[in-house]
Every structure is written in structure tokens, then in C-alpha cells.
């Protein structure tokens, strides 16, 4: 279980601070919606550790991670686009999810398995620059698989995709979340994406989250 409790933060000169409280269950997708500028990216940055709150806790399975630096948090972040190094192959991009000390054979086995799991067997040697938007999101998800971090933050991950691809990537996220018991937090403006995949939906308004 991911439990965020009174996580409080304000930018300089901000009159009313944000105060975020919400729960997310393993194996489920928790959606966060809200108007532009309401603070959705701010919340993701706090969860990822790129911003530091003035008070409050973020607990994963009972352990407060709020003072951990980003690289030590059990958290992966997947953005709308630009998640990959375009000049590297799909396999090299996926391998970035592993420690550089991982032996070469072990890396190859793990990368092949991850590409297979996201439906991209045989795409390892392709340059990221030559992949479609949906394939790039799959490669980014394969890298997330190797990171094996139980909290996945998604910031509008389907927005740049056409309708057919969007449905496929949405289904993949649901399947991976369920199978790997991730706590997936989906920030989205798109109510159809939220309705299609989310188990819970919070709306962010006036610096606070409310269950929809
Ligand atoms: N570094 C910063 N310093 C000061 N204010 C900031 C900073 N970053 C964001 N803000 C402000 O904080 C508010 C929330 O921004 P945030 O990007 O979290 O909103 P959002 O809900 O993600 O918006 P959108 O849906 O448009 O991406 C906005 O008013 C924004 O201008």
C-alpha cells in the first residue's frame, strides 16, 4: 500500500500550500486529474523526490520514504514522450533499467524477457529514433520492468498516441500493474483514459485531492 499523508509543499510566494493525502493499492491504477496548473506535476515531483515537502509522509508498505533521495526511492517515472535516448537501440534503452555492474549475459536475458513481456520481441536492435510512439512507450515500460520499483508514476503517458495504439498501451499498463503488483499513479486530463484503466480517481483542486 502507498499512503500519502498530509504532504505539504508551497512554491516561493505561494499563499496557500498544497496538502496532498491519498492511498493507492498494489496492483491498481490510481488516477489524478485536475485543471491545468492545479499541481499534478508538483505532486509527481514530490513523490519522485525532485521536490521536498515541508511536512507529511509518503509510506510504501509502512516505510516512510519522504527523506530518501530520488535514486533510493522505490519509484519510476514515465512521461508522455522523450523517455528514451533516441540514438541508442531499444535493448540499450531497456538495459538502463539495470545496474551497470550487471554481467553482460544476465543483462541480455533480462532485456530480452522484458521486451518480450511488452510485446516487442525482436525489436532490441532497432534504434529508438526509428520506433513509433507506442513502441517507445513499450520500451520505456520494459525498462521500468527491469528497475523493479513498485511505484510507477505516469504523466499523460497515452496522450501522444493514436487511438488504436493508445488502447494497446493502456491494456499493457493495466496488465503489468496487476501482474507485478505496482502502485501505478496516472496523471491525466483525459477522462476516457481514466475511465478505461483507473481503479480509483482523485481530483486535484484548491491545493487538495478529493476522491471522485
Ligand atoms: N518551479 C516553480 N516555481 C514556482 N511556481 C511553480 C513552479 N513550478 C510550477 N509552478 C506553479 O505551480 C502551479 C502548479 O503547477 P503544475 O505544473 O504542478 O500544474 P499541473 O496541474 O501539472 O499543470 P498542467 O496540467 O498544465 O501540466 C502552477 O501555477 C505553476 O505555475
UniProtKB/TrEMBL annotation:
Where are the coiled-coil regions? Answer: none
In terms of Pfam families, this protein maps to: ABC_tran
Entry annotated with the keyword Transport: yes
Q: Per its record, what are the GO molecular function terms?
A: ATP binding
What is the residue range of the signal peptide feature?
Answer: none
Keywords of this entry: ATP-binding, Cell inner membrane, Cell membrane, Membrane, Nucleotide-binding, Translocase, Transport
Q: Does the keyword Membrane apply?
A: yes
InterPro entries reported for this sequence: AAA+_ATPase (IPR003593), ABC_SmlMolc_Importer (IPR050093), ABC_transporter-like_ATP-bd (IPR003439), ABC_transporter-like_CS (IPR017871), P-loop_NTPase (IPR027417)
Q: Which SUPFAM superfamilies match?
A: P-loop containing nucleoside triphosphate hydrolases
Q: Tell me the domain of life.
A: Bacteria
Indicate the segments forming the ABC transporter domain, all copies.
2-212
Family to which this protein belongs:
Belongs to the ABC transporter superfamily.
What this protein is called in its record is ATP-binding cassette domain-containing protein
Write down the species: Devosia algicola
